[in-house]
Every structure is written in structure tokens, then in C-alpha cells.
Amino acid sequence: MSETLPINSDSGSEEEEEEVEPKFKYQRIGNDLKNILNTDVVTCSAVHSKFLIFGTFRGCVYLLDHQGNSVESNLSNGDRHTHSVAVNHIDVDPKGEYVATCSDDGKVNITGLFSCENNQNLSFGKFIKAVALDPETKTGVRRFIVGHDKLTLYERNLLKKLKPSDLCAVEGSVLSISWQGNFVAWTSHLGVRVFDLSEKCSLGLMKWEVPPQARLENFRCHMQWSNPNTLLIGWVDTIRICVIRKRNAIEAASGNLPGYIVDPVSTFQTSFYICGLAPLAANQLVVLGYRKERSANYKALRPVLCVIEYKMNSCEEVCTDSLTLRGFEEYTVNDYSLGCIMEEHRYYIVAPKDIVVASLVEINDRVEWLIKHNKFEEAMEIAEHGGNVPLLSIARLYINYLLTLKQYEDAAKLCLRVLGNDKALWEEEVFKFVKCQQLRCVSAYLPTSEDCKLDPHVYEMVLYEFLKFDVPGFLNLIKEWPPQLYDGLAVINAIHDHFRKQNANELLESLALLYSYKGDYESALRMYLKLQNKDVFELIRRFALYDVISKLIIPLVQLDRERAFKILLDKEKIKPEVVVHQLEQNETYLFWYLDALDKIDSRGTFHQKLVALYAKYDRTKLLPFLRRSNDYVIQDALAICKREGFHPEMVYLLGRMGSLVEALNIIIHSIKDIEMAIEFCKEYNDDDLWNVLIDESTKQPEIVTKVLDGIVDYVNPELVVSKIKQGQTIPNLQKSVVKLLWHYNLQEEVLRLAHNIQLTDYFDSHAEVVSMQQRARSVSFEKVCPKCNRALITKDAAVPRNGLIVFNCGHVYHEDCLTDKECSECVDWDTAIQEGRPALPPN
Predict the structure, then answer these.
(1) Which terminal residue of the chain has fewer beta carbons within 10 Å of its beta carbon, N or C?
(2) To the nearest whole percent, how much of the chain has pLDDT over 70?
(3) Domain 31-272 falls in which CATH fold?
(4) Are 302 and 8 in contact (CB under 8 A)?
């Protein structure tokens, strides 16, 4: 049974409070392994995709599955496959069929897990620290390498006999071996070498820096091939990334050198001692580390599993996890090791009394961690691309979290983003906002389409909250939301129940809209009129509410006279009689209306009213109106003018009635405008009027000259002069008489000239007529005499020719056919016309 291992993340600065998302999840291996560790200590291990193998301090080798359960194999049969002392190293062939082990007892065992055919047991009589099986799957276990004071390759021949071949002498002894393809890497007391089996030569020595106050061999060297040509080396506190490549042409030409070269592409130090390393991703390593520092009581600190991203000669710790392993305080750097299954990104942290599996965090694990640490946005983003955690469940947790933080607007936006058209989910989430009294925040995001229309009660709750806390917002919702979303009557009642004077304008407009939505347009109009909102005219136009406005005409005019009259003057929409009846309550509005109506309607139905209104409100229009209209009672109009003392209008009306003398007296005595009096007399040209005017002028000497000047061409000036009393002083009389005489002389000259012109024209016309009558006329052969109907002229010489008579009317006769000198055709037609008989006009 596995056990989840708690970790402490050391990523970033210790001062940072925010916890970093873990890269790995950890599980401690239990089951049968737990029983083994109760009695023994792990000294080495090998990890295969099929199983795990552990070597112990007592020299035993155990085969277990990945859950820690023992697996029956040849390793569990007898003692011949075990060592007498601690196992130093274990290696497994790629197929997982054979295991190689070595120990300080000097033995090397090659054991088939399920077959004993190729088992080997070698004894060297010296410490053996490393052994490696051929990694090529095609060769089986025909070859293996043992390292002691030299590096030896053992090959099995056709007779199944082992043939040893010394590959290379070693400085000191071989400490570890790692074999990949044709390249074998091993470590000695000086450093690391790579041997090329194909060329049977060493590719060189990479010396390693000796740690201060320690020996290099006291630290286990950890090597791992990340691919066939890349070797990862971790030793003491230094990591080196080496690439084995072919020499280029220039390098190969420089001497007798191997065809391959080991090229260290990156070298860097860590802050801890290295207990194992493995590849993770491009330029990333997983490193198991042993802290250099000690605790307060000089105990070992927790080991760390670190993800390192390396560059040319530097590195950066991506994340670091401190691991709480059993007995970690008593362990040394060489007690730990790290195994891995690279394809699965699974890493086995091996300690003497504990084994833990570190696996890359899966999508579901990441999502759960992010949710646990309130990183919902990241969790949702990850869940959108995979995993088994429903996106909707994360979103709903996120909504709850935002509500607890009082970030109501963000929570509302999230609802719109994730709830879609799910009515039930919307209603459930909206009630969370109800508890917080924050329905106003979610109102802008509520679904309002037919695809997802919530229960009317939901929208009404939102409106009630706005009505209570935000009346302008309430009005905006009434404008924006379709009215079928909620019960309009219930909202209207709520407005009346919560009506507040300080928000009267918004509430009245809301009522107007709600009444409009319900079809109660009269109530809507009344609300707009109370509000003095000019949208009332658009409402009337849109819904053709012309029957409704008959009782609201005066308020409409008060609101906007121009727009109101635009409606009221359209006789097809509302009858003028209705408008006049309503406007009689306000004479000013009635005057405006009738004045505007008169410009577009000449029927004169209301001209009698208009006379009084012009007299009261705009006298300048009265006289022109009286002149152009015949649809009023003259006596009534005259009475109004007399009452108001409008003399010019009275003169006009009296003139129409025939009371010319009375009209003239008003001009002379009331208006006192002699020029107007003269023009009045000229207009009617009545002798009695002229006599009255002349009589009045003689009584007022100062106007005599004006009369003399004005009567020219109408009255004989002698009438005026004869009535001037002898000795009476007339101002400017001489000037007027001279002017009068000059005018008569001028008139006489004009008459003389006109007479001469007339005579000249007469003689010219007479001469033209005579000339025309003396001119020859053309008579064609086709023309016939109207009397005898014979041709007037003929081409036949035998027929005697008669004389012809041609009239100015165009008719031509034989001279013999006429009894008198008149055109009989024209005389007959004139006679018929006079007698009233039908007759065709003469040809």
C-alpha cells in the first residue's frame, strides 16, 4: 500500500508568502517493501519499467513490483544469488530478464530472473564496486563489464565460455559504470572516462575537482544517459552535461585521434551534494540533493528534489522540494540514490529505510492543488485543455470564492462566462447574489434571450433591489430588458409602494415605460407629461395614439408647442374641432393653433374666433386677415374693432358695408391721416366722398394744399379753390397751385403728343391697307366660284374667260355671278350667327 508523502516547497525566496505550485507528487512505497526495510537496509537499487530491484546491507537482492509487492523469481530461491556483505551495485538488461550484482565480497552474479540458462557467478577476490550489462537488446547477456583495478569486458563465445578482455587500465579502481551503445562511461579516483568499444580506445579523461577536506572517491558519482549521445554526470556538487560527437574534418586531421570526442556543453555547481540525477525535459534535470548545511544538533537536513534548468555554464532552480524520509537525520550523501523511468517521468528516491516515488503532477492533481490554493483562473485554464475535473465545478467554486471576497462584479462576469444557457444553473447562482444583496452586480450579465429566459421572479428580484438601492439603475434595466421577462403590473405596484420624491423623475419615466409595455398608453402619456419628457411625442407617433391625446392637448402644447402643433395640425390624425374644443380653455394656445391652422387650411371654419384672437393677441395680423377672409360676420368684427378702437380695421369694415362717409370721417377725425383719406376717396372714386373731403379741408387750411395735390386726375381743382374763403390763409397754397398748373400743362402736352401719335398711326395704317388692297392676288386653277361652283379660270381656250372679283376675306367670284358687291359667303354666315342658326364658317 502506497502512502502520500508531505513535502515542503523551497522554491523562490523564503520571504515569499505565496506557495509555489508543486512539480511532483510523492508517494511512499509500502507493502512487502515495508517488511524488508524493517529488518534490512537498502544499499543500492535498479529501476526497470517492469519492476524494482533492491540490494541490501545484508547482501540480499529483492525483486518487487512498482507498488512494493514481492515478485517470485530466481532471486528469491536460495542463497546462491546473494552476497555475503552489502550489495554495491545492481544493473538490469533492457528486456528485464537478467540482473547483475556486485559486492565487496568480490563476487559478481549474473542472474536470470526466470531462467538459469545464462547465469554466471564470478569471484575476483577484491572489492567490486560496479558492473554493467550490455544495453543492446539484440545481444541478450552475452556481454557485461566488470570494474575493479581495470575495466574488463566479458563476452560469451559459441561454447558459452566467458572471454575476458581488458579494455583500459584504471587510475586506482573503478567506482561506477554506465554503458550506452558503443560508449562506456566510468569513474575512477581522478575523474570520468568514456571508452569507445567500436574503436577500442578511451576518448579521454575528464578530471574532477577534488572537494576541500575530502576525497573524491568518498562521493558516489552518478551518471545517466539522457539519449545515445548525451551523458549526464553529477559528482560531489558539480553537474556536467557531455555530448559525444564525431570529430570534424579539422579536428580529425590534427593527429591520430579517436573518431569521437567528449564535448562538455555545460558545467555548473549546485548548492548541495548530488545524490542522483535524471533528465526531465529539454534543458531540465531532476536532481536529488543532500544539503551541505547541518541542523542545530549537527544532524543531516532533509534531502531535496530539485528541478534545474541549465544553460551554457549556469543553472536556475525551477523548484525545490524538501523530502521527509525516514531516518534522514542519520544518513550521509552516499546513502541516497535516484532511479527513474524516463518515458513515464517517474523518479524513485531511494534511502536506506525509505523509498519514495516522485511523479510529475498530472492535470487533475494540478487542478486540485490550484483549487485548494484559490488559483481558480489557472485551474480553469488547465481544465479546458484536459483532465477529468469538470470546468463548471471549478467555476462554481470560483464564484463562491469571489463572493466571499466581495468581488461581486468579477463573480457576475464569471457567471456569464461559464453558465451559458443553463437556466437551472443561472437561477441557482443568482440566489447566491440574493443572499449578499448584490443582484445589481449580476444584472448586466443575466441572460435575457429566448434561448435562456429565467423565471420572472428572478428578474423581479433584481428590479426590486435596484428600486431599493439604485433608482437610476432601475430605470436603465426597464429600458434595456424585454418587458416579457417579468410581470410588469407587479413592478408598477412596487414603484407606487416605494415612490420617493427625490427620485420622482426616474420613477415617473419607469412608470411611463411600463405602462407603454402593457399597452396602457394613456397612463404612459400622463407619466411623460408629469415628467415633462418630450419622448411623449415619439410614443404618440410610434403607436398612433391620436385618439388618446384628445384630453391631453393643453399639456402637450405646454411641453413642446412646435412638436405638439405638428401633430395637432394634421387633420387626418386629429380633427380641428376636437383641438379647438380643448384649447378654448386657454385662449393663448387657441390663438397659436388657429393662427397656424389658417396658414394650411383656407376653409375659414374658425375665422370668426380668429378675428377676436387677432384683436387680442396680434393686431398686426388683423387687418390683412380681414382683407383676405370672407368667413366672418362683418358686424361682429366691426363691434370688436370699435370696442378695441382699431380705426384702420373699422375703416376697412365700414367700406365693405358701404358706410363710406362714416369710414372717411373716421380717417379724417380719428386717424387724422389726410393722405389715407385721399387714397380712400381714390379707391371708391365717389363724388360724395370727394365733396366731404373738400368740405372738411376748407375747414382746416393746413390740409388744403394736400387735398389739392391729391385730387389731380380725379376732381376738378376748381371745386377746392372755389370753396376757399376770401382772405383765408392757406399755407403753401402758391406752391400747390404752381404744382397743379404744371401738372395740367404736362397733362395737356401728353395729350397733344398722344393725339399726334394717333394721327400718324392712323395714316400709316390707312396707307398699308390701301397698298394691300392694290396688290395682285394669286388664283389657282383648282379654285371654284362659290356661286356657280365652276372653275374660276380654265386652261381651255375655247371657253370664254370671265372677269374675277377678289374680296379681302379671300373669296373669289366670277364677275358675272355677283349681283351686288358683297361676299355672299361671309354675308350668309354672319346672318346665320345673328339669327342663332347653326352654320359652318366660310371657307
Answers:
(1) C
(2) 88
(3) Methylamine Dehydrogenase; Chain H (2.130.10)
(4) yes
